[in-house]
TrEMBL record:
It comes from the Bacteria. The lineage of its organism: Bacteria, Bacillati, Actinomycetota, Actinomycetes, Geodermatophilales. CDD domains: metallo-hydrolase-like_MBL-fold (cd16278). Keywords: Hydrolase. It comes from Goekera deserti. This is MBL fold metallo-hydrolase. The keyword Hydrolase applies. Residues 44-205 form the Metallo-beta-lactamase domain. GO terms for molecular function: hydrolase activity. It holds the Pfam family WHD_BLACT.
Length: 291
């Protein structure tokens, strides 16, 4: 099997570190970039302000880190939209997306909504897939997208764009966390997102993907299949530890992201074990199942 080609390689996307702090992506959406860039968060966490122009209202999606400079940038963007916050939505519980949710909910006197009660907080709203949220003069559709983690959500806009959180990144591929994530769930969520035919993917990290969103989703599915093939091929000579598998399969990836790669590897091995294709070996090792 050959490695799939990332369609974004030929797109005119902003280079790492060059994304503007604030950008209007469409009449409904303003993106504000948090100052928490890293190997895992790329340029930083993308916070989205969603609302119909002239409504005087906005929904904050993924407030991100509890950072004073980020809050100031978001409040400046809200002033530019002449809008007040009427709700805070969170795609998932990871701190780079959810840390500021409850503090900002209190600051803006706005309810917090998420799939997890712990993120929504006391008096918050626990969301379920299929809900239609009429907020800020528009409607956001709730789509459960577990896989990256168990409580992950996406939000579909009236324009056809989807706020995908960490399910899809603007550059590279997403991590399936372990043990809270699931490769089986992740693949199913990718297929359901693909079936929506999104007009754009507004990612939790990295630039927006507008040129051919479904091609990116096809690539993500192919990439996961390729990683499975690599792991199985690496096990042909015999049992290997997870660390050994990561070093071989992710040899071309910067070492700083190997801890995340280890999580995805463990999640993929869990899928392969459930399918009867690999079995535990000694210690932290795994081996191919005997036919």
């Amino acid at each position: 099997m050959t490695a799939p080609v990332d369609p974004r390689a030929g797109w005119q996307l902003p280079a790492p570190g060059t994304m503007p702090r604030t950008a209007q992506l469409e009449p409904l959406v303003t993106r504000v970039l948090a100052p928490n860039a890293s190997g895992m968060t790329l340029d930083g966490t993308n916070t989205y302000l969603v609302g119909a122009p002239g409504s005087g209202q906005a929904v904050v999606v993924d407030p991100g880190p509890a950072d004073d400079a980020h809050l100031a940038a978001v409040e400046q963007a809200l002033a530019g939209r002449d809008a007040r916050v009427v709700a805070v939505l969170v795609t998932h519980h990871h701190g780079d997306h959810a840390e500021a949710a409850l503090p900002w909910g209190a600051r803006f006197d706005a309810p917090v909504a998420a799939a997890s009660p712990g993120v929504a907080g006391p008096g918050g709203r626990v969301l379920a897939s299929g809900e239609q949220l009429a907020l800020a003069g528009t409607t956001l559709g709730v789509l459960a997208t577990p896989g990256h983690c168990s409580d992950h959500l996406a939000f579909r806009l009236e324009s056809g764009a989807v706020l995908v959180g960490d399910h899809v990144l603007g550059r590279g591929t997403s991590v399936v966390t372990h043990p809270e994530g699931s490769v089986v769930d992740y693949l199913d969520s990718l297929r359901r997102l693909h079936d929506l035919g999104p007009s754009a993917l507004y990612c939790g990290h990295g630039p927006e993907l507008t040129e051919d969103p479904t091609a990116v989703l096809d690539y993500y599915l192919a990439h996961r299949a390729y990683r499975e093939w690599q792991l199985l091929a690496a096990l042909v000579p015999g049992a290997r530890t997870v660390a050994e598998l990561v070093a071989e399969v992710y040899a071309a990836v910067p070492r700083e992201v190997w801890p995340a790669a280890e999580q995805s590897t463990r999640a993929t091995l869990a899928k392969l074990r459930a399918e009867g294709r690999v079995v535990p070996g000694a210690g932290d090792s795994v081996r191919l199942a005997t036919p």
